[in-house]
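Intended use. Records such as the Immunoglobulin C1-set domain-containing protein entry shown here are meant for training and evaluating sequence-to-structure methods. They are not intended to support clinical decisions.
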Amino acid sequence: SLPVTHTLKYFYYRSSGVPNFPEFLAVVMVDDVQISHCDSNTRRAEPRQEWMEKVTADDPQYWERETAKFLDAQQTYNARIEILKPSFNQTGAGVHVYQSTYGCEWDDETKKINGFSQGGYDGEDLLRFKLKEAICAAAKPEAEILKRSGDEKKAEMESLKYYLTHECVYWLKKYLDYGRSSLMRTELPSVSLLQKEPSSPVTCMATGFYPGGATLSWRRGEEELHEEVEPGEILPNPDGTFQMSAALDLS
């Protein structure tokens, strides 16, 4: 079954005290396919798909702007870690990680649009942007210092809402157009049945399908089985396609 909801997601990772790992990392993904990357070692935004080279034909300054955006985010998250440390009663060096993700979703059938933005600190939820109200909600008391800062800047929050529901969607559609032959392709799976022993569950394995939106079910006649079935996750293959399985308990 083909997905109709497309996504553009940005992932930022800012750490302190983590050895042998970039202090800052940014990854951009379209429909869960990585399209660009930047980190504090290279300090340069770079494409991760060949078709992303097409962007500069229409926009020669694209990669310079992306690099500037990512490096600006690094400075922002540097400051946030320093602001948060006292709130969590943290002193000295130590290992600390600030992560954030934001982006948008677009349904190419219903045309419905959604946006999201959230941040986490040391592996726990910290802030979440409420799109409809255009406000930040703190997931824990220590995040209030950042939440208040956001609420005081109402214009900035409205600007974020506009970005997530307009500009982000504009770029999502643009990336989909650039990578249409890859992102919008369809590949059917090969399907096999596996059983270790006569008393073992029978596993239905489907692999090699693209895109990754799919369902796999066992049926008895027209009835879909649920209680007897243990479904597996959709997992990526090395060649960019996907696989999934569902085990049927015969006992």
